[in-house]
Write a sequence for this structure.
């Protein structure tokens, strides 16, 4: 689709926007803010293109509100502000119309978050239309990657591409919506229902030098992920990713925790071998959030091999473990530091 069709020629399309799924809905999911709470019905945007400043302010405020519910973060708001400043009056009115056609505040937040993730206009309209009439819990389930059992790698060595899919889905709710719409993302079925999902994992794996084989089979080959992240995730998050080897664990975890608090997910590399073995075995997981828990600070980590998303104590990571995801030695060797591009 060309720029005149989208109406947003100043915003480049995400490289993941080509992923489309057929229609299909799953079962109801958790409430977006927990405890039976609700963000409630949409609230109209009143500003007009004649007062573009007010209109941009109102649109920005919607996504700012999403931060209160952990539905958006500062980087998403910063990108939205930048993109709104590039838009012409007619484009602002089109976006306002899409926002005012939503039925819930949650829809409005996710539309703007997807827009900030570089989604083409046609994808954004389809996403907005498909959310209408869907419960808040179901929208939350399908537009995020936070289920306790979520996206699982379909191939033996596809942990890196799966981490990319998970990070992209958290940054771009339209992409998460497509992943969750028709595919059983927590099931291993690369040759059946999940063939399209698996095909994207395989394509990235082999594009960056790996080899895909069925899980449990030999002969596969994994990849390093820095180049893959920068070529595919950067256009969505607006961040460049630097590979940082972990020397001082406490210092590294402090940096990772600070980055999570800034609103960026952080890919991590794990090894099951001691430091004397060098890099040894490698596996990628995704740190998605931080909170204060019973035993101190905890990181929410998604593991693509098991599909689990769970909270892991900082003290557990410092002890070279990742319980309850892995029940044995698991040492962090690298993290992939995002910085605004």
């Amino acid at each position: 689709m060309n720029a005149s069709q989208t109406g947003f020629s100043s915003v480049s399309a995400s490289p993941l926007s080509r992923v489309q799924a057929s229609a299909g809905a799953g079962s109801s999911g958790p409430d977006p803010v927990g405890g039976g709470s609700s963000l409630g019905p949409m609230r109209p945007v009143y500003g007009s293109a004649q007062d573009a400043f007010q209109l941009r302010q109102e649109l920005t405020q919607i996504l700012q509100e999403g931060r209160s519910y952990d539905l958006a973060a500062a980087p998403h708001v910063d990108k939205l502000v930048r993109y709104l400043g590039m838009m012409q009056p007619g484009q602002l009115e089109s976006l306002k119309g899409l926002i005012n056609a939503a039925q819930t505040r949650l829809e409005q937040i996710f539309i703007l978050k997807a827009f900030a993730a570089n989604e083409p206009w046609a994808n954004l309209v389809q996403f907005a239309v498909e959310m209408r009439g869907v419960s808040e819990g179901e929208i939350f389930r399908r537009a995020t990657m936070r289920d306790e059992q979520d996206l699982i790698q379909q191939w033996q060595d596809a942990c890196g591409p799966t981490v990319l899919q998970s990070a992209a889905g958290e940054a771009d709710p339209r992409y998460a919506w497509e992943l969750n719409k028709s595919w059983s993302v927590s099931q291993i079925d690369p040759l059946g229902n999940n063939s399209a999902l698996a095909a994207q994992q395989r394509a990235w794996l082999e594009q960056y030098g790996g080899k895909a084989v069925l899980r449990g089979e030999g002969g596969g080959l994994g990849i390093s992920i820095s180049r893959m992240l920068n070529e595919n995730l950067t256009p969505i998050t607006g961040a460049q990713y630097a590979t940082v080897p972990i020397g001082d664990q406490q210092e590294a975890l402090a940096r990772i925790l600070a980055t999570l608090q800034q609103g960026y997910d952080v890919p991590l590399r794990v090894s099951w071998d001691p430091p004397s073995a060098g890099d040894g075995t490698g596996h990628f997981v995704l740190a998605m959030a931080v909170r204060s828990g019973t035993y101190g600070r905890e990181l929410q980590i998604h593991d693509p091999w098991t599909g689990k998303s769970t909270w892991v104590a900082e003290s557990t990571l410092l002890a070279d473990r990742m319980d309850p995801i892995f029940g044995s030695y698991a040492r962090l060797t690298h993290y992939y530091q995002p910085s605004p591009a």
User: Anything to note?
Assistant: The chain has 14 helices and eight strands. Residues 1-31 have pLDDT under 50 and may be disordered.
